[in-house]
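Let's do one together. I've listed all components of the complex below, 573 residues spread over two lines.
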Amino acid sequence: MRAEFAQAMMGLFERHPNVVFLTADLGYLAFEKLRDAYPGRFVNAGVAEQNVVSVAAGMAHEGLIPWVYNIAPFAVLRPYEQIRNDVCMHNLPVKIVGNGGGYGYGIMGATHHTLEDMAVMRVLPNMKIYVPLVASDVKHAVEMMTEDKSPNYLRLNFPAEIDQPIECFKPWRRIKDGKKMVVIGVGPVLGNALNLGNNDLLDAIEIWAIGMLPTSPIPEELIASIKAKRKVMTIEEHYGQCGINELIARQLLDLKIGRIIYKSSYALGYPSGKTGSQKWLQEQSGLAGQGLEKIIKELVDA
Amino acid sequence: MRKDKRDFVNKVYSVKKRLLAMYKEANAGHIACSLSCAEILTFLTFFWMDDPDTLILSKGHAAAALYAVLCEAGLITEDDIKTFYKEGTYLGAHPPVRKIRGIPFATGSLGHGLPISAGRAFASKLKKENRLFFCVTSDGELDEGSTWEAALFISHHRLTNLIWMIDRNHIQGFGRTEDVMALEPLDVKLKAFRFHVIKADGHSYDSLLAAKLECLSNNGTSETPNVIICETIKGHGVSFMENTVDWHYLPMDDGQYKKALDELDAWREQQ
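Okay, and this is what the predicted structure of the assembly comes out as:
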């Protein structure tokens, strides 16, 4: 989604003279065009993640809309106190962009992954998280974030490849209908449920994508579907603790939805102690491939 | 005495008297930290800053000094000052989030004020404004990596519209700076970061004025940003508090408060 994001920035810069772009020295082969077109508003602040966030807060206080780009763990975890104190406490429109949220940087290793970013970001005051699913979501998310006068975090990743037409990016979207169970997911990992290669299973699952956190109330039609099917599964490329599995469970409890079967698939970290590609790491956690298929099948058959 | 200097002495007297009263009423510490930068904040507010200029007190634990100065400037009322440290106040031990004109950012966690100021100064320069951004840091917070990240940024982008004041009182939270984490030669370090380094007596009007004039002169002739190392005494003006770690934390009893006020009166008489 990095290319789509860079493209969206170009459009944004043309229309909004107050938008500035900051990077902590990342963006090779993505942001050169932006850098060359807008040298004054493109700031490579060096490998200094804490400073760049506070600088952005200062800029936002003076009326600019700063976008701060980084690899996701370096965007969120290294400058976390700066995000909390300088940006969120003051409710400033700083737009934090983390590329490769989850296992996105694959073989680069655990230091380059973040499996806790949505958890730590969604508890911050005023913060809203945007998680695109497919490539075309990025420009819509960027537009929504620009209109949003609050702090935001954009979690980018390799997009899901979805053949069928889907609705424009929004907080809740039904991606497809299904007969026996509901799958609710966040981010491109949800695409793995669509690409199981098992048409019988695919017919059985209704799929919903969450685009924003904290979540808005669960849509009525999704509630109706859960009440009818009584089987729900969540999927996220993120640790289970404080993930969407807990969030949705809480919302369903509040709705007094009654007895349902509820399963969750989430990142287990590095269960074998080994690393690999994003896909391989997803498979290790049952977020892709046969592991995911098994979990879904068990739920369909339950 | 010249009128400007007399005005300065009177303002500092009023600020210090008020902050001592606030700490006494609150039975709170951080007194010496506030006394160390009271002259700096007074000088900036009344003898340097114009209307669009702005200040961040990065050493937020000296909030009482800032509140007292802002009260003197009419931005905080006497009634508000009376709420210091009390339940439901805006005036806690550290500057609050967006509640008071004159306090653009909440501070308290060290190493935030300089980077925020850098961002503000960058934005202002981009917008071709003519404003100055002052940031007062402690010396203890020079241990923070983020302070030096900001120093690199300020220097690289030649943010001469940012004036960095270091309250160099040589004492941090749990010892003397040179014992805990040596900073010297501080001027050499800052020069190596490509700052125009000015040294001043942070309690002297004449010295702070000379530093101001040197800053303005430097800004007229070069693109090297300015840092003023203000040599100060922690607990300045109250003999038993001066140069101690204890008075970073301790509150005053009645006898100590009276002695502090007596010494403050004596200081004014001597000026």
